[in-house]
């Protein structure tokens, strides 16, 4: 299959119609969101959604997020839109917050991995919203091969999906760089299943008894995605506290080392940043860049687990083979 990459801008809006046409025919299309690129299918078409799992090599029990562009679609998909849900929607949609509700029967089991709940979000990206308006609701995971870093450019999607999907809508680099926060509203109190750009602190102002779900060995998890190894580049990622970096650098002196930190620590292949926002935006891209440069080891300086730092550390812990 040939994979077409279409750059969408104000002069090429007809590309959105082409993409919507493909979705209506049961095909899959990659598209930008404000977080990472998604790989979309008609959420109500089982055989179309099945193509996503094949293209990504994704385990069938890991459910997908359904993307919508209008609130009337939410009402068609879910039961129990509580007053709290309405407050969250008003405050954070469109935006990087995914909400988990009890599902209605129209949502096929293949979308939810057999769960009786469904995750929904309205992305804050113009191209995504225009595309979803034409073809939605759209079920979409991140548009990477399962286990590799989520794509933040159309080029990353092409690298993973060339020959596996018919079309990529290119909207440039994504703004945020890590995936949305996933909040389970079916449990009482609500729980964060995946931290992201909308922070624990922000949600806590609306949900005073908010919890963060943890993986407890031997106990069932609320979100299958919590169990999978994710976001891994081919290089070995080591998550290190600042005071351990010097020793690590000397230990790996005969290897090709890259570093993601606030200072270079004498390493040539370095991504230096000032803010967590900058780190989130570039993290997955740097993982892919360093792999292209055939780096053996990526040392990443740990950040404080507050604000956006909680979401960043969640991704780093999953990517890391070692934490010191
Ligand atoms: O920012 C994002 O969320 C991106 C863009 C494309 O929207 N999407 C994304 O999708 O990251 P994905 O499939 O890579 O991650 C979805 C996460 C997984 O951890 C999955 O287990 C969880 O959401 N999830 C989906 N439906 C769920 C449900 N019904 N109950 C619990 N967890 C669910
Ligand atoms: Mg993903």
Descriptive notes:
The structure is a single chain. By secondary structure, this protein is an alpha/beta fold. Helix content is 31%, strand content 21%. The chain contains eleven helices and 17 strands. Strands 1, 2, 3, 4, 5, 6, 7, 8, 9, 10, 11 and 12 form a twelve-stranded mixed β-sheet that branches. Helix 1 (14-24) crosses helix 6. The chain is globular, with a radius of gyration of 20 Å. It starts with a strand and ends with a strand. The model has no long low-confidence stretch (mean pLDDT 95).
Q: Which helices and strands occur, and which strands form pairs?
A:
Blueprint: E1 4-7, H1 14-24, E2 29-31, E3 38-42, H2 46-56, E4 65-67, H3 71-77, E5 78-79, H4 83-92, E6 97-103, H5 109-112, E7 117-121, H6 126-135, E8 138-140, H7 154-161, E9 167-170, E10 181-184, E11 191-194, H8 200-204, E12 211-212, E13 236-240, H9 245-251, E14 257-261, E15 269-272, H10 276-292, E16 297-301, H11 308-319, E17 322-323
Parallel strand pairs: 1-9, 2-9, 4-7, 6-10, 11-12, 13-16, 13-17, 14-15, 14-16
Antiparallel strand pairs: 2-3, 3-8, 4-8, 5-6, 6-7, 10-11
Helix pairs in contact: 1-6
This protein binds threonylcarbamoyladenylate and magnesium ion.
Threonylcarbamoyladenylate binds at residues 33, 35-36, 38, 62-65, 96, 98, 100, 112, 115, 117-119, 123, 140-142, 179-180, 182, 193-194, 222-225.
């Amino acid at each position: 299959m040939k994979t077409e990459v279409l750059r969408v801008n104000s002069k090429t809006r007809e590309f959105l119609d082409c993409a919507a046409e493909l979705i209506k025919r049961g095909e899959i299309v990659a598209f930008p969101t404000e977080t990472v690129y998604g790989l979309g299918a008609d959420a109500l078409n089982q055989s179309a959604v099945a193509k996503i799992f094949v293209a990504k090599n994704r385990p069938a029990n890991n459910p997908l997020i359904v993307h919508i562009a209008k609130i009337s679609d939410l009402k068609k998909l879910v039961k129990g839109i509580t007053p709290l849900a309405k407050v969250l929607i008003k405050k954070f949609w469109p935006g990087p917050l995914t909400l988990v509700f009890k599902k209605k029967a129209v949502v096929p089991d293949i979308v939810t991995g057999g769960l009786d709940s469904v995750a929904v979000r309205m992305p804050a990206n113009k191209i995504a919203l225009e595309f979803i308006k034409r073809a939605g609701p759209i079920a979409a995971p991140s548009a990477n091969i399962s286990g590799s870093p989520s794509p933040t450019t159309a080029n990353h999607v092409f690298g993973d999906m060339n020959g596996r999907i018919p079309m990529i809508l290119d909207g440039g680099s994504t703004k945020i760089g890590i995936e949305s926060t996933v909040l389970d509203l079916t449990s009482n109190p609500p729980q964060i299943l995946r931290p992201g750009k909308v922070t624990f602190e922000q949600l806590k102002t609306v949900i005073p008894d908010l919890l963060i779900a943890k993986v407890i060995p031997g106990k069932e998890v609320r979100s299958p995605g919590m169990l999978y190894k994710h976001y891994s580049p081919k290089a070995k990622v080591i998550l290190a506290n600042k005071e351990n970096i010097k020793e690590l650098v000397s230990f790996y002196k005969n290897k090709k080392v890259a570093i993601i930190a606030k200072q270079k620590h004498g390493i040539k292949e370095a991504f230096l940043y000032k803010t967590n926002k900058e780190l989130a935006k570039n993290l997955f891209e740097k993982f892919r860049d360093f792999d292209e440069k055939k780096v053996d080891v990526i040392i990443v300086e740990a950040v404080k687990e507050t604000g956006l730092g909680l979401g960043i550390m969640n991704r780093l812990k999953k990517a890391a083979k070692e934490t010191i």
